[in-house]
Amino acid sequence: MQHKKIINLYPNNNHKSLSISLQVQDKFETRGFQVSYENNPNADLNICIGGDGAFLRAVHKSDFSNIPFVGINTGHLGFYQEILIPNIENFIDEYLKSNYEIETLDLLEARVHFSDDSEALIFNALNEFVVKSSDSSIIHLDVLIDNNHLETFAGDALLISTPSGSTAYNFSAGGSILYRSLKGYQLTPLAPINSKAYRSLLNSIVIPSMSTLRVKVRNEDSDSNSTLIIDGMSNEYDNLNYIDFKTSTKSISKLTFYKDWYWLNIKDKFL
User: Fold this and answer.
1) Cα–Cα 20 to 30 A to 161, which of 13, 108, 131, 169?
2) Domain final residue pick, 30, 64, 99
3) Is the domain of 120 the same as that of 227?
4) What is the pLDDT of residue 1?
5) 268 is catalytic
């Protein structure tokens, strides 16, 4: 007996996305697929329904699954959500014909080290990490690239983004847009201070994939709690020492149906 192919559905919890997910479920089941609303590791495709937030949540919920992702946009921006609601039928037809390309999206890894020498914590992000003080005061951070001291940063926060995440928080903070297949990641300062006392880079820099970025809490902030934001999810620490960032060994795959969609989307969303 031949087993049915499986589709994982990850809808937002709003009414529109839930309604669209039922339509998608019906269309795939009519074509002989089994639909799961949980992370089924035997699935052939992960479909995220909502905005970019829904895509990010699905990626984290699936623990960065190696099953390809695709997004149906019921939100506003939707840089990950390529499929528009009127095109759902056509998307399914093209998927069944294998008329798509698979794009690999790099992840960022953060290895968090503590001053009490407790075991380091490891996180991955699809969009970005942000390092800031927990009480929104000025944070002082030593920044090193491959153990070379670059600067002593003073300001609101440091943002470290993937090429995929460069159009999100990074872009709003004045960072550059990096095409998603480029190898590297970006360090962007948030409200850096430049005075006689402090000198910080005012613009973002692009770091090669093979390099490690270390962000170390300065002694003047040792009594303050620090916050690491991972794709919008916050973790607070009272004994953070330093964080090493690098391109992760993990990655995710995304289906792409329209060759020029990325550039058309940038023009449509930003210009």
Assistant:
1) 13
2) 99
3) yes
4) 44
5) no
Question: What is the Rg, in whole angstroms, of the alpha carbon atoms belonging to the chain?
Answer: 20
**Burial of residue 8 (number of CB atoms within 10 Å: 0-12, 13-18, 19+):** buried
pLDDT tens profile 252-262: 999 999 878 78
- Active-site pick, 26, 52, 106, 117: 52
Residues 124 and 186 in one domain: yes
Beta bridge partners of 206: 186
The per-residue pLDDT of the chain, averaged, comes to 92
Is the Cα torsion angle 201, 206, 212, 217 positive or negative in sign? positive
CATH number at residue 52: 3.40.50.10330
| Per-residue model confidence (pLDDT) at position 136 | 81
* pTM for the predicted model, two decimal places: 0.92
The beta strand positions in the chain, using DSSP E, are 6-11, 34-36, 45-50, 69-73, 83-84, 101-114, 121-125, 128-133, 139-145, 148-161, 185-192, 205-207, 213-217, 226-230, 233-237, 240-256
What is the tens place of the pLDDT at every residue in 149-158? Answer: 999 999 999 9
Residue 50 in domain? yes
Tokens 């690999």 sit on residue: 104
Q: Looking at the DSSP assignment, which residues form a beta bridge with residue 152?
A: 142
